[in-house]
Task: inverse folding
């Protein structure tokens, strides 16, 4: 059995870092939009 080993170079350090506050409502809204919860709820309501 032949196993191949891949050697990766270490990541280079970033020369500049930016820190931003992400508020939980923005994260929740983004997730709801991404997975389409609103459309699924609307579809369920219209079916009843």
Result:
């Amino acid at each position: 059995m032949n196993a191949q080993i891949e050697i990766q170079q270490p990541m280079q350090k970033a020369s500049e870092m930016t820190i931003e506050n992400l508020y939980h409502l923005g994260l929740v809204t983004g997730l709801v939009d991404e997975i389409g919860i609103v459309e699924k709820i609307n579809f369920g309501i219209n079916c009843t």
User: Anything to note?
Assistant: Helices lie at 24-35, 37-47. The CA atoms of residues 4 and 11 lie 21 Å apart. The chain has a mean pLDDT of 76.
